[in-house]
Design a protein that fits this description.
68% of the residues lie in helices and 0% in strands. By secondary structure, it is mainly alpha-helical. It is globular, with a radius of gyration of 20 Å. About 3% of the residues have low confidence.
Length: 227
């Protein structure tokens, strides 16, 4: 059982306690069970923090509703709004905001990564989108060359460009950093299918299923291997 301790001399209010739990879940442990301690105090929070709560609960409709009438101005507010747009499936809008934030400050690595990933979602199959996302990821690689999310997305682009050797090299590197990474394992299965390597595709699929038994794409991957 996790307990929060107030570091100041004065006792914390219900509002500060709710914010503390919200910050804990957001930055330390993505466990929605701790958000129950925020739910009963939700009305005490500002609209931005209510939207943070609903975003963590993956209720993006409620999150956007919480921001109705709010003047979204700061980079934190804009980043959250872009996450909500992404969650609602408006990838083009999300990309526009993430890319703008990244252009304003190239140290915003998180905004750069989100700009690249939402661009790929917004314009699937678009060759120019692949090239632009690759350019963004190449910039980000200078800051975090071993980040698994970055490596996996670069591999996804390589796969879609038909560069299977590059994709494999990137996925091997990603799995060295995080052997259980869902996206890396998923892309490795696709890579082995494209390489007509049935044995290896089954081995990676077994690893994926063992670590992520609830993954919704399992049956589709199995059909691809056996087709």
């Amino acid at each position: 059982m996790i307990r929060l301790i107030c570091a100041s001399d004065t006792a914390g209010t219900e509002q500060t306690e709710a914010l503390a739990w919200l910050n804990y879940v957001e930055t330390q442990r993505r466990d929605s069970s701790y958000l129950e301690r925020v739910e009963n105090r939700l009305a005490l929070l500002e609209p931005y923090d209510q939207a943070r709560y609903w975003t963590l609960q993956k209720n993006f409709t409620a999150a956007k509703k919480a921001l109705t009438g709010v003047h979204i101005q700061s980079s934190l507010e804009r980043f959250l709004f872009a996450e909500i747009e992404e969650g609602l499936g408006d990838y083009e809008s999300a990309y526009s905001i993430f890319f703008e934030l990244y252009q304003e400050n190239k140290e915003r690595w998180d905004a750069g990564l989100k700009a690249g990933t939402t661009l790929l979602k917004a314009r699937q199959g678009d060759r120019n989108a692949l090239l632009e996302a690759a350019r963004i990821f190449d910039e980000l690689e200078k800051q975090k060359p071993f980040d698994t999310r970055l490596l996996t997305n670069k591999a996804f682009i390589a796969l879609n460009q038909g560069n299977l050797r590059k994709a494999e090299r990137l996925l091997v590197k990603a799995l060295q950093q995080d052997p259980d990474n869902l996206k890396a394992l998923e892309n490795m299965v696709y890579l082995q299918i494209l390489n007509n390597n049935t044995l290896q595709s089954k081995l990676f699929l077994d690893r994926l299923e063992a670590k992520h038994p609830d993954y919704v794409g399992l049956e589709a991957l199995k059909k691809r291997i056996h087709s």
